[in-house]
Request: fold
Amino acid sequence: GQQVMQIPQYQHVQEGEDFTTYCNSSTTLSNIQWYKQRPGGHPVFLIQLVKSGEVKKQKRLTFQFGEAKKNSSLHITATQTTDVGTYFCAGRSSNTGKLIFGQGTTLQVKP
Amino acid sequence: DSGVTQTPKHLITATGQRVTLRCSPRSGDLSVYWYQQSLDQGLQFLIQYYNGEERAKGNILERFSAQQFPDLHSELNLSSLELGDSALYFCASSVATAAGANVLTFGAGSRLTVL
Reply:
């Protein structure tokens, strides 16, 4: 079945360093969504990418959707302690329409 | 407040017991999804309902069942509980069916502890 792999599983950075998490799907996606879950909280929608090669920015966060629509990345520039949490990608299969979540990348930021 | 209401927030019970988790979707949302999140694990999709009908099934155990009622609230029933069922159970809602490019709004979750 469809799988969405996300790496790394954990990342510890010093405040001010950059951070990137990668998401790879075994099948072509119609769109990909990103969610953030703060410690003790629930996932909150960040953004959705639909077009091949699409790049979107939200302040220090940059989201990319691959040309083949099978991979995506989230890059955070100059991390802050408020960026701490688990970032999930969720890919929607072009074939089945099902939304499959990656395992998430947990980001720790040392002040 | 996301607009998705889950009750109870916390639940402690014993092995072999049965519990019911409840979810009220955001106003206007027709789809309800249930996810299980174990400690340090990702979000495991259990089941989705759309306007009262089951629309998609994930890795839901036979001991678990769910339904969506005419007022669109949903209940997840967990029976013959085992220690491994201890987890955070999230409900999420969205406007459209799985076929659409819709966004999920999650509730705060119900934390189940099985002793």
Notes: Chain A touches chain B at residues 30-31, 33, 35, 41-45, 48, 50, 88, 90, 92, 97-104, 106 (CB under 8 Å).
